[in-house]
């Protein structure tokens, strides 16, 4: 049960990483990943980490990965959960999830026009084809890859756009850069909050640190 809970939490942690990076790359960091919303292709591929690796993406990914891992460490330590067991399980799962999505699922849904997970998951859990291809590439919304916290970031994106539409911010002006630096920290705060909430919801099923410590002491005494 604990392993299943950790796997679910790991998927959610990866989804929050995905949403934050996606929001930054598409809306205001404006690194090379925004090419995915153009008609540019290399060998028929468009910024999907298959034939193309957008400039600036690796720096963004590494910084966000490290930051979210630090957040998770703090949360697990505060709640006295076994962070080392979780990290050893979730680290490969998160990397596998990223590679699965970018190397397999992403090209599939763009070329096949349907969910990679199949009709049952698409109907009852999530339809990544409708969410990404029909929503994100049409309106810009649906940044997430799981049906958890995308709704919040869709609303944030809407109001983010309004401040430019109404002229409160202008691209390239000092206040534009100041506001978007502030937004980076706000995104981090929201990710921390949602991660804390998810850990709290799965808390009864997660491995507690004192149990691991007790087992280790018992092994040493034998």
Major beta sheet summary: none
Mean pLDDT: 85
Q: Span from first to last CA?
A: 28 Å
Structural class: mainly alpha
Helix content: 55-70%
H-E string: HHHHHHHH
Beta content:
under 5%
Q: What is the general shape? A: globular
What's the Cα radius of gyration?
A: 19 Å
Low-confidence regions: none
Number of extended strands: 0
Number of helices: 8
General description of the model:
With 222 residues, the chain is mainly alpha-helical. Helices cover 70% and strands 0% of the residues. The mean pLDDT is 85.
What keywords describe this structure?
222 residues; mainly alpha; 8 helices
Question: What does the secondary structure layout of this molecule look like, with pairings?
Answer:
Layout: H1 2-28, H2 57-78, H3 83-112, H4 119-124, H5 128-139, H6 150-165, H7 174-202, H8 209-221
